[in-house]
Amino acid sequence: VSLERRHVLVGGALAAMAGALPAAEAAARYGLIGRIKAQPGKRAELAAALAEGTGQMPGCLSYVVAEDASDPDTLWVTEVWDSEASHKASLKLPQVRAAIAKGRPLIAGFDTIATTRPIAGI
Amino acid sequence: VSLERRHVLVGGALAAMAGALPAAEAAARYGLIGRIKAQPGKRAELAAALAEGTGQMPGCLSYVVAEDASDPDTLWVTEVWDSEASHKASLKLPQVRAAIAKGRPLIAGFDTIATTRPIAGI
Question: In terms of DSSP H, where are the helices of A16-93?
């Protein structure tokens, strides 16, 4: 199985479903690694807002919110999408817009650390 | 549902299984965001070695290998584990040791960009 045809499988329970993915779909996959600095003391509140808003997003294969282990105000958001178009479309979903509105005043800074093409995973 | 009790759910098909997770387990979760620079022209080969070695790792909730969109030699590896102990134990698995042995000569540099505590996700 070539990397081009590997399916991005996220979640141990899905490992058994591993299968081929058309090359066109594999090539379109889109990932983001973002670092968000919360206003001092607001990280938990910001994480909650992000988590609430991202429950049902078409084309989203993975969306993980994680606390930085060494900086008390930093969150990491790692995303895997079936395409960049799905990611862009998600920004127009009502619950995502609500989450952004709720989260914005809690954010001190945001950096996109990397834009990626996810090629394999479990 | 508090963030402490949110289950890290990775993979859209698992979303329906969303449920509470004991706080002790949630607190133990462990994440890594790593940036790996391959030797020039060796990224695909390195990615294949990494992907091969990480199929069955107890306690691994997510392991995604992604190509950097702007640097042709850079890979990103993002990992979510149920505990740091599971991550450490994985390094002793035969297929992981084989992947490391295969990948090592292809690696020009490795940086752990962040160690995290994943708190929510889909």
Answer: 23-28, 43-53, 84-90
